Amino acid sequence: MKPYLVDWSNVIDYIQPTEFHNMVKVISGPDTVHVAHACNWTSRVMGTHVYDINPMMRLFFYSGGLLSSDTFTITSEGIISQAPSHFRNTCSILLARKYVKHLFRYFYKNEDVNCGCANGVTPLTMPYPFLRSNVTAHFLFAYKSTGADFGSDTYDYMNDDEYFFFRSVTIDKRI
Questions:
Q1: What are the extents of the domains in the chain?
Q2: Could you tell me how far CA 49 lies from the centroid of its own chain?
Q3: Helix (H/G/I), strand (E/B), else coil: 89
């Protein structure tokens, strides 16, 4: 079996990266590209929860979250705008974008992979009114030994340059 594409759904939420990569390498062929998404990663990455950050910065992330998403609901009357969700969820929209690369560095540690996502900019879903979660990370990868390259959709998870405006944010230690 030498598949061209394998969709792992959110298996990575339930398995250690080394165990996952061992399994993936067994079924990978010379042209195999893997697709996955992580739903629960924000519960494991420090900095993605509003209580992880300095209290003086929380309003910044809340207002940024409000500006970056509108929420809607479907009723028998049609689609209507609804009040913003809980402030933790609103803040997580920006905090997830700041720290998603930490997930990738952890997940691909000691692995030689090419990683990609739609448009190469962020693996996170664009804020969209009908999504269940705005912080699900969607990505694809292939081991460099396959020669697979994602061109303009390549995601450079080792480079932090696009997040220059977040560098002044401090993280409080968990008790």
A1: 5-46+99-166
A2: 14
A3: helix
